[in-house]
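can u do me a favor
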């Protein structure tokens, strides 16, 4: 999703593209899985007029509009990323907290198989794997 797409979605729903919304969307374009606090920390020096509550309100609006996805990786923070065209999945290291994204055609196949067998119509799917990343597994971390 680009800033232009984002602006079109906002306008179609009766919202304006404010400077704060543009700044937050740019941060989400640059990095994935950011918390509201991380976004705030990244922008506060250059944009001291923006408060943490503005970041939270903006993220809530963007989530409500379907522009961002809100994730819970079990680290105590909601994490946000711009919606992508294609579902992707995550693996989270229980030792260091690293989150790895991956696409796997078998998951796509599984979703189609469930649809065929049950009639359930899938709008979106996501898989979260928990374990240890290669570095932590090699070191023997638990």
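np, heres the sequence
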């Amino acid at each position: 999703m680009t800033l232009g797409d984002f602006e079109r979605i906002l306008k179609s729903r009766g919202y304006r593209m404010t400077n704060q919304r543009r700044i937050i969307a740019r941060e989400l374009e640059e990095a994935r899985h950011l918390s509201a606090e991380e976004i705030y920390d990244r922008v506060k020096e250059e944009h001291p007029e923006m408060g943490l509550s503005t970041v939270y309100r903006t993220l809530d609006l963007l989530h409500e509009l379907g522009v961002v996805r809100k994730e819970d990786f079990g680290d105590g923070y909601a994490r946000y990323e711009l919606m992508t065209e294609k579902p992707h999945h995550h693996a989270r290291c229980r030792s260091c907290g690293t989150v790895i994204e991956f696409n796997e055609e078998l998951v796509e196949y599984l979703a189609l198989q469930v649809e065929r067998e049950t009639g359930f119509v899938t709008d979106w799917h996501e898989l979260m794997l928990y374990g240890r990343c290669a570095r932590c597994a090699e070191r023997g971390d638990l």
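The chain has a mean pLDDT of 87. hope that helps!!
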